[in-house]
Design goal:
Length: 233
């Protein structure tokens, strides 16, 4: 038995999954808005309890490291680091955009994972379907949505879009007449894909040093905790 617990808090959802030898045995996803810390702990307890296991039964922890916004992303990464260190087990970090693409499964079109980064920008990466790991076609990036659509329009390949940026900037993404939009169920990182990817990597001995696992904010400003206005108490 090789149990892996997967966590992702890079979007407005908290996702937790448990896999045994790569097969998901329990999973939950809850809308958390800005309450990720409050939702995370009881969700982990529920998932482990439903499978009849304890944290000490785990062989590894896997976590989506973003990109994402500060409020949610740090909760999942910090929780994963604390658990891996306390239990003295390996930690595996995966891009949350990759997890969105992996959750879509086998498709023939180029997969464009894109979600709202606020401030008039989007987080984005493109992939081809792979098993279990999508084949990356671009690095994770934060871009202006109009510039991104201009780039995508210049490509000849058919596309499938997934992520809440499609609804955040509907008029901009509507310009991609050749693109298919995935159902909203696929618009968040898949924690079941996370534990599957992690199981494959763990079997190959590909784990991440704890000191190397940090939230991928992509914007320096998102990595700084707001301190209020200058001169305020």
């Amino acid at each position: 038995m090789t149990l892996i617990l997967g966590l992702d808090t890079s979007t407005n959802f908290v996702g937790v999954a448990l896999a045994d030898n790569g097969t998901t045995v329990a999973a939950e996803s809850h809308f958390a808005a800005r309450q990720h810390a409050e939702v995370m702990a009881p969700t982990i307890v529920d998932v482990l309890s439903s499978a009849g296991v304890t944290p000490h039964d785990l062989a590894a922890i896997a976590v989506g490291i973003g990109p994402g916004l500060f409020t949610g992303l740090r909760v999942g990464v910090t929780t994963a680091l604390v658990m891996a260190q306390a239990l003295d087990i390996p930690l595996l970090a995966v891009s949350s955009l990759e997890l969105m693409a992996a959750g879509l499964g086998e498709v023939t079109r180029e997969i464009v994972a894109v979600f709202d980064a606020k401030r008039g920008e989007v987080f984005y990466a493109s992939f081809r379907a792979g098993d279990p790991t999508p084949v990356r076609l671009s690095v994770d990036a934060v871009v202006d949505p109009t510039e991104l659509v201009d780039q995508l329009m210049a490509r000849a390949s058919d596309l499938v879009l997934l992520g809440d940026a499609v609804s955040a900037y509907p008029e901009i993404f509507a310009r991609l007449a050749h693109a298919e939009v995935a159902e909203t169920d696929f618009w968040v990182p898949s924690v079941t894909a996370l534990v599957g990817i992690a199981a494959s990597r763990l079997a190959r001995g590909e784990v991440d040093p704890l000191e190397s696992v940090v939230p991928n904010y992509l914007r320096t400003s998102d990595a700084v905790i707001p301190t209020g206005r200058k001169g305020s108490r």
